Fold this protein.
Amino acid sequence: MSSSARPELTFDHVGLVVRDLTSGFANVCSLLPIVSATRVYDDPVLGVSVQFLRDAGGVIFELIAPFGDNSPVAKIAASGRGVINQVAYRVTNLAAAADYFRARGATPTGAAKPAIAFDGAPVQFFLTREFVVVELIESEGTSREFVPV
């Protein structure tokens, strides 16, 4: 894929940073029409604990809490600033999509890493010129199981 061809981006979720998953879950469910949720995924490689919630319209939110001493979201969770952390998309070829994003001025925040919540599929985060964080997930599907809340 050339850097001029936009990769196919399939919306996956909006990431919300919370101080902890228990209170974040309770607060989000009390405000939004959340109908189902996944189990909690603790990911020491990414330094986060996450849980996915689905609302009545089918929008998926990922609650993201710090996990471990070097969590990349610890400062955000403590400050309460930037809590709408990212918009995530699935791609079939992460390397090509990353080239496309870099060619348009988006800066990777780190190397691609495997994510437990996506069955070990690699994920990579980019900061756009507008300061929006976009997560790219190299995966065509997921085995996440949602259960009613």
User: Anything to note?
Assistant: The mean pLDDT is 94.
